[in-house]
Amino acid sequence: MERVNRPRGTADLLPREVQDWQRLEAKAREVCGHFHVQEIRTPLFEHTELFMRGVGDGTDIVEKEMYTFLDKGGRSLTLRPEGTSAVARAVLENKLYVETLPLKLYYLAPMFRYERPGTGRLRQHHQFGIEVVGSDSAAADVEVVALAMRFYEEIGAKGLTVALNSVGCKECRPQYREELLEYLELRLEAMCGDCQRRAEKNPLRILDCKESCCQAAVLGAPSIQECLCGACKAHFDRVVQGLDALRLPYRVDARLVRGLDYYTRTVFEVMTPSGATVSAGGRYNGLYTELGGVELPAVGFGAGLERALLLLQEQGVTLAETEPGVDVFVIPLGEAAEIAVLQTLDALRRAGLTVERDFGGKGLKSGLKRANRLQAKRAVIVGEEELAAGKLLVKDLQDGGQETLELEELLYRLT
């Protein structure tokens, strides 16, 4: 009898490999713990409509890559090709948005896409993903990028950089769309068939095409950065200020658009020294209303675990083994403090503490209320007075005592 082999584009994880997978997943969970991100798990398959409405019916994923089938009841179901739409459906269906916002969720899960198998590209692959739901603050974008970079740092990857852009919003993107279409009008015949079709539905995705003929055609295309409205420009500037404050390596890439229709404003990719993408994400403020739910701004990223392991192999890194509610809750008061606390957050988390921060900007009373709800041990408060003195106001949330300390002194006491 003929032997049955595994399907093309899948992989067996043998016992000697599973240890590395467990350590990689443990690192992801550990980093999420330090950022106070909670796990969510969704079904392997969803109603096909979810991805058509969420991802976009003109995307490559929906048009070419989904594993879609009819069940015995004649319902169209699809194996999950990406995690964001599934998480959004779960948040809406279970009304998680009535809880304290923002929600900070992560998943470690298999995804399924019908594409040509290759190195680090499988039809069943695994993703580590983060979704921060309910905050429109640029600080949330910075938090997501910082978490992505922290994950790779913790597993030992070296030389990674962030490619960063803004794709605007429904107010300013139409202007750019018209300018781009005008530029592409005389060049479409030289492009691939996919991009010729994309010009009708979403011409921005032409910028993401990897075909050499299309890359050559868009070399002189107008930059979306020049078309951003005031609100999108201010948001992007705040993201850049945050990455600068954290000293994260990044470059602005005006042609970075990502391949999914739900992105608005910030988009980013984590790049290896050779230029390969190992993680990508961005902001998607319209997805929840597109799925028939309440308006919820959100930002997140997805990281391929197969690609992460390949990167470590290429760099000669072996995973070493290494869990903590909330040790410290940080409350910035005012715009200047929003940036100033980033280094404090980074230092506390690097010291192995579980640290959460206030994103709401609603003041001290609201921040302390949330800190107590999270059962945080201490609150660190940074306002104008603390900024001027270069110190932190530290409040013990168990006995109510408070004192003013320098960051080094606080780290010494807590570690």
UniProtKB/TrEMBL annotation:
GO BP of this protein: histidyl-tRNA aminoacylation
Binding-site residues, L-histidine: E82, G83, T84, R113, Q127, E131, R258, Y262, Y263
InterPro entries reported in the protein's UniProt record: aa-tRNA-synth_II (IPR006195), aa-tRNA-synth_II/BPL/LPL (IPR045864), Anticodon-bd (IPR004154), Anticodon-bd_dom_sf (IPR036621), His-tRNA-ligase (IPR015807), HisRS-like_core (IPR041715), HisRS/HisZ (IPR004516), HisRS_anticodon (IPR033656)
Entries under CDD domains matching the protein: HisRS-like_core, HisRS_anticodon
EC numbers, comma separated: 6.1.1.21
GO cellular component: cytoplasm
Location(s) in or outside the cell: Cytoplasm
Catalytic reactions of this protein: tRNA(His) + L-histidine + ATP = L-histidyl-tRNA(His) + AMP + diphosphate + H(+)
One term of GO molecular function: histidine-tRNA ligase activity
Pfam families the UniProt entry points to: HGTP_anticodon, tRNA-synt_His
Keywords: Aminoacyl-tRNA synthetase, ATP-binding, Cytoplasm, Ligase, Nucleotide-binding, Protein biosynthesis
Coiled coil: none
Domain Aminoacyl-transfer RNA synthetases class-II family profile intervals: 22-332
Family: Belongs to the class-II aminoacyl-tRNA synthetase family.
Subunit structure as annotated in this protein's UniProt entry: Homodimer.
Protein name: Histidine--tRNA ligase
Native source organism of the sequence: Tumebacillus avium
Gene designation: hisS
